[in-house]
């Protein structure tokens, strides 16, 4: 009975997530799609930072690489949107693995600055004239939003939301199993005490580089889905603030909370708009006040806060 209940809850959550398709407007479905996209990207960052202890301030670079991979394949070679995802995953995983190799010699703030430098460099590389036939240069690339297949009576936004939700379910299940399995325990052992983990026989180099590759793959896939949803990519759309917002979403949701990544994604998507509505003159100040208040009230993040409440309810029962 307990096993059935453990499977029933996620199924009900997935079904509830699909309900908005029936009554929400296309714009609101687009917003929900972006929440799921940011959730996948933040989950990739959580695997690296929250569970492996490697601080990254440059995951916006992997988001950009994934977005451009999909945009180039769709606009230049007319590759179907769904077929670009495996290619984007492979490209971003390879780049993440290569970035992870020099990161083995770095840690803490030094690694954070190195990844931040990557986030600063990527927009300039995308503007390079030698590759602007592919990237579109400063002007970027425009792609079409896919229609619903099989003649389904769904708008393009509704179908893309369901498609993105399906991809997210797969990625979240994989991430959950990784964290709860042997690899996840090795990742957390390195995070908590690298020297002790190495003494126990854990291969630090292998785990760190593979985690970096996995993290980059998740964030790159999010970039691909985000590009399809927005229908446009340009270098200036992937500045350093993308990396900062992803890191903010990670902290708000809880650095080591898988479910909290969606709460952090909702913060990234909705709070800037809310701050702009509260004050047109100083939306940044309102945003800062909200962020400080959340960190003060929930120092472990929204995921940690809700997890603590749930444990209290269980103990009470």
Write the layout of secondary structure elements.
Blueprint: H1 2-18, H2 26-50, H3 59-76, H4 81-103, H5 108-126, H6 132-135, E1 141-142, H7 156-180, H8 182-192, H9 194-199, H10 204-230, E2 232-233, H11 240-253, H12 260-278, H13 283-297, H14 301-316
Antiparallel strand pairs: 1-2
What profile does the largest beta sheet have? 2 strands, antiparallel
Calculate Rg over CA atoms: 20 Å
Amount of helix:
over 70%
How many DSSP E strands?
2
**What fraction of the residues are assigned to beta strands by DSSP?**
under 5%
Strand order of the largest sheet: 1-2
Q: Stretches where pLDDT falls below 50 for ≥5 residues? A: 1-5
N-to-C span: 17 Å
Which structural class do you get from the secondary structure elements? mainly alpha
**What string gives the helices and strands in order?**
HHHHHHEHHHHEHHHH
Mean pLDDT: 92
Dominant shape: globular
In DSSP terms (H or I, runs of 4 or more residues), the helix count works out at 14
């Amino acid at each position: 009975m307990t096993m059935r209940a453990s499977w029933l809850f996620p199924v009900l959550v997935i079904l509830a997530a699909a309900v908005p398709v029936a009554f929400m407007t296309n714009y609101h479905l687009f917003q929900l799609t972006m929440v799921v996209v940011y959730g996948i990207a933040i989950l990739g960052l959580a695997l690296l930072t929250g569970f492996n202890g490697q601080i990254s301030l440059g995951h916006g670079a992997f988001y950009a690489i994934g977005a451009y991979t999909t945009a180039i394949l769709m606009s230049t070679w007319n590759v179907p949107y769904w077929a670009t995802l495996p290619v984007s995953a492979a490209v971003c995983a390879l780049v993440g693995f290569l970035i992870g190799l020099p990161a083995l010699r770095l840690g803490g703030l030094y690694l954070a600055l190195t990844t931040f430098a990557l986030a600063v460099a990527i927009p300039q590389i995308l503007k390079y004239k030698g590759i602007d036939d592919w990237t579109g240069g400063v002007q970027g690339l425009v792609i079409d939003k896919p229609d619903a297949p099989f003649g389904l009576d769904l708008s393009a936004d509704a179908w893309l939301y369901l498609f993105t939700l399906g991809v997210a379910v797969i990625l979240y299940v994989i991430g959950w199993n990784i964290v709860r399995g042997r690899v996840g325990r090795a990742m957390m052992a390195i995070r908590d005490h690298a020297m002790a983990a190495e003494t126990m026989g854990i291969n630090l180099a292998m785990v760190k580089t593979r985690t970096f590759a996995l993290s980059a793959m998740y964030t790159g896939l999010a970039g691909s889905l985000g590009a399809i949803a927005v229908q446009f990519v340009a270098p200036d759309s992937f500045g350093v603030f993308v990396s900062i917002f992803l890191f903010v979403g990670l902290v708000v949701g809880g650095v080591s909370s898988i479910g909290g990544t969606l709460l952090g994604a909702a913060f990234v998507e909705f709070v800037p708009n809310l701050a702009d509505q509260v004050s047109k003159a100083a939306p940044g100040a309102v945003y800062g006040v909200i962020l400080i208040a959340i960190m003060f009230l929930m120092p472990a993040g929204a995921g940690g806060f809700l997890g603590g409440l749930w444990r209290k309810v269980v103990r009470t029962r």
